[in-house]
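Example 3.2
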Amino acid sequence: MAEYEPLIIQRAEGCTLIDIEGDRYLDGVSSLWCNVHGHRHRRLDAAIVQQLGQIAHCTSLGMSNPATIQLARRLTEIAPPGLDHVFFSSDGSSAVEVALKMAFQYWQQSVPARPQKTRFLALGEAYHGDTVGSVSVGGVERFHAMFRPLLFDVIRLPLPDTYRLPEGVTRQSATDHYLNQLEAALATHHADLAALILEPLVQGAAGMVTHPPGYLRGVRQLTAKYDVLLIADEIATGFGRTGTMFACQQEDVSPDLMCLGKGLTGGYLPMAATLASDAIYQAFLGSYAESKTFFHGHTFGGNPLAAAVALASLDVFEEEQTLEGLPAKIERLSEHLVRMAELPHVGDVRQRGLLAGIELVQDQGHKTPYPWEEKRGSQVCQHALSHGVWLRPLGNVVVIMPPLCVSLKQLDQICRAAENGIVASTQS
């Protein structure tokens, strides 16, 4: 905190941020992975103004509103099949907290009840938020080590990495290796497990680590086989980031619970949602005396202002054919990454759709990381700033994740700034 010197951003337009001095920067990380259609999009701005003319907020406890009802329906229509029920909250961490509590309570009230199923299975280097429950299933040591005495115990599997592979494992055999590990854990612990939680396809805060092809599909098959719920945390990967509306769709996976946030409102307002299957929903139905209610509520859960802009964002996906326009941008990003992969201190480049991570290493052959205290990623981002591009690293990993509306010319500028920063920061 003693070294914290933030930019002060006064306004924005499209993919450009403008500070109080009038300097302009391309938003290379979508204002922390949430902006989808750009800043000050006319359709999104108009939706907020129109909703303000009706009501800004009413509680979802005992009442509802048209915007929130419409959004719930739209989300179930675009989600993977079977996710027919929506619980709104205020941020991604809360969406995960809801999913964990919902999975726990489900087994207490299912027919027949399985009250011993109280534990969770999570992946190494996972990030699921900063509330106590979401931190418990998280696995980023640097973020969460301080709070270990507060956390509940989870069963954890190694990070299913395709860069730093275990000895004897190749990229071709990685999927089977990691799924074999998972099946061994499920065979041992399934009777006690409420759910497995994972970020599908890409683990964001781990450094944009990509899972091997077919891993997600195998996870779904194994959790179903061993009667363990699957929670998909699509907070970072959802709403087009990986090239499809949701990452799960790339391997035809329908989880039991799915967490959404960040891009849900196009990056305009805080809102999150936890989608659930009908089987889970049914377990919470009963008479007042049975007290099967899910006792979890947020003051601003289902906020009509946020719901209105979220609906407008979904409209823009259709009107501007956002997903259909991604392949050319994804290909252009790939071209830049192929070139950057040849730089002397780039150990690995990882890409899923329009998100990418470029990992810097001291030694490519041994994959030796730079000491985190050297702030190599931060040096790259500071250099990029002088080229009019705002980036934010994950340790030694330079992240590129622009709004989906980014033009090819803007994407070129972002990638060139990152490349120049990598060259400058790794010469010493």
